[in-house]
Write a structure and sequence with these properties.
Strand order of the largest sheet: 1-2-3-6-5-4
Distance between the termini: 24 Å
Number of helices: 6
Strand content: 15-25%
Shape: elongated
Radius of gyration: 23 Å
């Protein structure tokens, strides 16, 4: 796996204009994701679309374009979308203990916990870890583990906490719709974060400064709905994406979208031999919201249909590497 600090964040900027030539357009009955208006086509200016697997296997110097979020961004997104976690710390007799907790995060991604009085059995050694998982369409479970110190807000710098106290209360009320007892509030400082793409994957360490400086993905609140709609209403397009944008030596028996973010989407492909693969397909350009993601998906869908019908020459590089999935649990 490539460490994120070895790569420069770049996004592809590819035009999505379609120029007239043939009086044919892609037929559709899609409601949520309508294709562009019927126009004749000529060779599209949709230039080289470079695809890569969800976890690159090549050395860092060969990956020229960053087409997926950095681990720090993924961790921030996981924390923003989740509300329960496993808190682990040492008890007074030296044994590690894990308990389920609810949490919210402040603008820097710092976890805010509400612990009841029974959690007083944790030792004075405040070192702890907070493990959070995010299920994505029942197909993948990215997760992050924050290592840091478990403190009550008043244990920190007084002036800083006085300014933050009201914010902590407001964040908790917004997240859970209830007031919080300030005597039960705790925060977990972020010393470092281990980000993993799924179970049985090799994780990537993220520094505290990288985590705090990263932004959660702008599509996070609409990503699940976006993926569900495509998997429910656009399976023909999803299958076509496999055949057009991915260089396969087999006809997929099934394909599904897993997740979408500002730079593209991840797909899971099933072979007739029951093997499972994952592939990353980038958007032509970075998107900022759900509307932009739908527009990019429709443009790519239209181009794939043109290529399939031989109305347009495939002027893009197909992905040639697939990430084989070994863990297939839910």
């Amino acid at each position: 796996m490539i460490h994120h600090s070895q790569m420069l964040p770049q996004t592809q900027s590819l035009p999505t204009h379609f120029w007239p030539s043939l009086p044919l357009s892609k037929p559709t009955t899609i409601v949520h994701f309508s294709p562009p208006k019927s126009t004749p086509f000529r060779k599209s200016l949709f230039q080289t679309l470079k695809c890569s697997v969800s976890v690159a296997a090549e050395p860092a110097h060969l990956e020229m374009v960053r087409n997926k979020p950095f681990p720090a961004e993924v961790s921030r997104t996981i924390m923003e979308l989740s509300s329960v976690a496993s808190l682990s710390a040492l008890t007074k007799d030296g044994w590690p203990l894990g308990v389920g907790v609810r949490f919210a995060v402040d603008p820097q991604g710092i976890p805010i916990l509400c612990l009841n009085v029974s959690h007083s059995y944790f030792s004075i050694d405040r070192r702890s870890s907070l493990h959070v998982q995010l299920k994505q369409c029942g197909l993948r479970t990215p997760q992050c583990t924050i290592e840091g110190s478990l403190d009550k807000p008043e244990d920190r710098m007084a002036l800083k906490i006085l300014r933050r106290y009201k914010k902590l209360h407001s964040i908790w009320e917004k997240k859970f719709g209830e007031e919080v007892d300030e005597n039960l509030l705790h925060v977990v400082s972020v010393e470092r974060v281990l980000q993993m793409e799924d179970f049985q994957e090799v994780g990537t360490w993220v520094t505290s400064s990288e985590y705090k400086a990263a932004n959660p993905d702008p599509l996070r609140d609409s990503a699940e709905k976006f993926v569900d709609e495509i998997n429910s209403n656009n399976m023909e397009d999803v299958q076509r994406f496999c055949n057009i944008y991915v260089d396969l030596d087999f006809q997929p028996s099934e394909a599904k979208l897993i997740w979408v973010d500002r730079l593209g989407f991840d797909m899971r492909i099933y072979s007739p031999q029951k093997d499972v693969f994952e592939v990353r397909i980038p958007f032509p350009r970075e998107v900022a919201d759900e509307k932009g993601a739908k527009s990019s998906f429709n443009s790519m869908s239209q181009l794939a249909w043109e290529v399939e019908k031989n109305y347009n020459a495939p002027d893009f590089k197909k992905v040639k590497q697939l990430k084989k999935i070994t863990y297939k649990g839910q």
